Amino acid sequence: MDFKHIGAVIVAAGRGARAGLDGPKQYHNLAGTPVIARTLAALSVRIDTANIVIVRHADDQDLLEDALSGQTANIKSVSGGQTRQQSVLAGLQELAQDAPSLTHIMIHDAARPFVSERLLDDLFEVIAQNPNAGVLPVVPITSTIKRIHDDKVEETIPRTNLTMAQTPQLFPAKQILDAHLRAQHTDEPFTDDASIFEWAGLTVKTIPGEEENIKLTYPDDFARAERTLNMAAMESLPDIRTGNGYDVHRFVEGDHVVLCGISIPFDKGLSGHSDADVGLHALTDALLATCGAGDIGDHFPPTDPKWKGAESYVFLAEAVRIVGEKGGTILNVDITLICEAPKIGPHKTAMRENLARICAIDVDRCSVKATTNENMGFIGRREGMGAISTASVRYT
Fold this sequence. Notes:
Layout: E1 6-12, E2 29-30, E3 33-34, H1 35-44, E4 52-56, H2 61-67, E5 76-79, H3 84-98, E6 104-109, H4 117-129, E7 134-140, E8 145-149, E9 152-157, E10 163-165, E11 169-172, H5 173-183, H6 193-199, E12 204-208, H7 219-236, E13 239-253, E14 256-259, E15 262-265, E16 268-270, H8 278-289, H9 296-299, H10 313-325, E17 328-338, H11 348-359, E18 366-371, H12 377-380, E19 384-395
Parallel strand pairs: 1-4, 1-6, 4-5, 7-12, 17-18
Antiparallel strand pairs: 2-3, 6-11, 7-10, 8-9, 13-16, 13-19, 14-15, 17-19
Helix pairs in contact: 3-5, 5-6, 8-10
């Protein structure tokens, strides 16, 4: 399809009073972006902006420029009339004057910002086969229809073959302009452009519309659209999760401690069912936390003699396996060792390299730090030591 010969009229001259907003609804921010800017962006994926005319209220030029952030250099705009029909005619005449080579014109409500590329392509596909027809997206009516008067039901209307019309609607340029020129001299209550095309005796074909292509009319419509956009934004963000871990062990008689998998000579040992590596225990818990997989005690209970004296790299390796099984990629790990002694600084490089090996990540994604407890508490009294850890994991 040659999109160069298709233009568009965006109807934006209404006041939108039913929306209950401060100002015309088409300039209201929706998840941080004005409605009309979203609508323009949706159409411009297929239509050159030089072939788009926005029909605005005579008082709204400043609002339009603000909504489009000054990006109106090649966007034509004209003032609308008292009725929708008059406004669309003004837009069609502007396009006929400035872009006479256009073969088809799309007419779209500014308050429908969710038109999809699929819907646009479906419209274009129909006119490729039926160049003299208009094309209208419709959605079926699923609710029972009642005609009422004075709060009383007058009749139930069969909904067979009844549909609700949407925009954008697409027409051959000359025929829709001629139909609008004729329609301006009648008193017919036209509510959309397809009805004018029909009134002129021309063919209108239909395609399936989209439930998401709603027209923002009432306050609830804006609230629902805001929720939908916020959810979509959340879903488009990478699933990066952070877990924390904490562990402590008391000192006992011994001649070394194991920290982050590295044996360090010391005049004490650490008490624990395994090798009591507070660093790896804290990191194991942090990784398990990123996927809600419990904690180290759930997987390696201290009551199980199988784990007596076990090297803690086994626990960490299992946590790494669980994270990978659940679709996680470890981004970085961080451990802070809290003790008055032994000295950690000389061993940090070896610790980081060991973490990188077990977690299968680069060493620059592994951090080991140390701090004292300033001689306060059980750590300050050199009764034991602790560790806190943080891990970041991206899930797919």
